[in-house]
Amino acid sequence: MKKGLFLMGMLLGLMLFCCGCTTNRNPGRPVPLTPIPIPTKGPETVTPTFAPYVPNYDPVDYLMTEDNVKTIGRTYYDRDVRWCGYSGSGVEFFFAGRECTIHFKSDDRYDNPGHEARVAVFVDGERAADFLMDAPEKSVKVIDSGTDTIATVRVVKLSEVSDSFVGLDCVTVVGAISPLSSLPTRIEFVGDSITCGYGVDGEFEKDVYATSNEDCTKAYAYKTAQRLNADYSLVSISGFGIVSGYTATGEKQADKILPPYYLTIGKSDATFGSDLNAEEITWDFDSFRPDIVVINLGTNDQSYCKDEAKRREYIDGYKEFLKTVREKNPDAKIICTLGIMGTDLCPSMETAVREYKEQSGDENITTFLFEEQDQAKDGVAVDWHPSEATHEKAAKKLADFITELLREEW
């Protein structure tokens, strides 16, 4: 009861504050505001009650700065817009008030069908909006309660970086917002189409890949973070590998390897913010220090690595990438995994980790093998990719493995 009264008092005080905080209605150049310190909701559900009359006040615009929102994954703030490329990137914030509208900007691929950015907004964990950025700008109202309310809001880019970026312009609220606190555990997932949730919303042998059927929140990485109540970052590109991208002919696809882009905010054919190119923007590793790095790379390499010499090339390339990951994450536990869409390179991945440990003396690294997908039992998505049922099973096994790993350290 005391907690409910405290939140009620905070929200009513917030209402009075906002009565004097009007701003010109120009979402393109909103006025930055100092956020109100709002308590994060605890594990118990609180349903405050309010006085029947609340004074009228004007909408307020909040920029997507780190003073106002908590960033998710690798984002880039430029000229009052926060750009999101990699799957799962976005922002989240605590909301108190009556209305919440989020304004978005597109990159230069909004008119390229099948490649538009797909975005979702979750309010208190429930999907309140899911749309494609098929226009230069969009505004999406996700809360219109008519009464005073509190909620957590999460904006997530569902589709992957290689197709497009999306810009988070500002938030217009009747009320106020404040960033959520960081969670105790941070996990970075490095991978390919499996991590991106490629084709998970499509049907096998009926649909072809498009951003409209890609949803990283239905894939194992996002689900693992949710199970562990962890902050996350996804660095994943469909078709990419360690030494070769996917090849249908056996010819090496050396231009489709992920290690170079691990150092950037992404890889995309799109430009955004008029003149920005993701490949030229270096990622600041100090902005997100993971406790755990999960690497799931090799599914595409296995289409190339068909003989002993090529598998040796994969092993050596994997070891070089591990050096980079360790350099950028000196204290993180590294988990190397593989197997959902084929186990051909699992022995080579394990060899790479064993040799790396022997040569470096780095013991803060381990391997974990996924079970290969059971297509007959759990179904299959576009282009033989995992169904959500497969992703759910994989997430449970990986979350259990991480839990045991951390328990051993405690």
Short overview:
The chain is built from 7 helices and 14 strands. The chain is an alpha/beta fold.
Please write out the topology.
Elements: H1 2-19, E1 60-63, E2 70-72, E3 75-78, E4 81-84, E5 90-106, E6 118-123, E7 126-132, E8 137-157, E9 166-179, E10 186-191, H2 193-196, H3 220-228, E11 231-236, E12 292-295, H4 308-328, E13 333-338, H5 346-360, E14 365-369, H6 375-378, H7 388-409
Parallel strand pairs: 10-11, 10-12, 12-13, 13-14
Antiparallel strand pairs: 1-9, 2-5, 3-4, 4-9, 5-8, 5-9, 6-7, 6-8
Helix pairs in contact: 3-7, 4-5
Notes on the protein architecture:
A hairpin with a 2-residue loop joins strand 6 and strand 7. The chain contains seven helices and 14 strands. The longest helix is centred in the last third of the chain and has 22 residues, at 388-409. The protein is globular and about 70 Å long. The chain folds into two domains: 2-179, Sandwich (Jelly Rolls), CATH 2.60.120.260; 186-409, 3-Layer(aba) Sandwich (Rossmann fold). The model is unreliable at 1-55 (pLDDT under 50). Strands 1, 2, 3, 4, 5, 6, 7, 8 and 9 form a nine-stranded antiparallel β-sheet that branches. Strands 11-10-12-13-14 form a five-stranded parallel β-sheet, sandwiched between helices. The protein is an alpha/beta fold and 410 residues long.
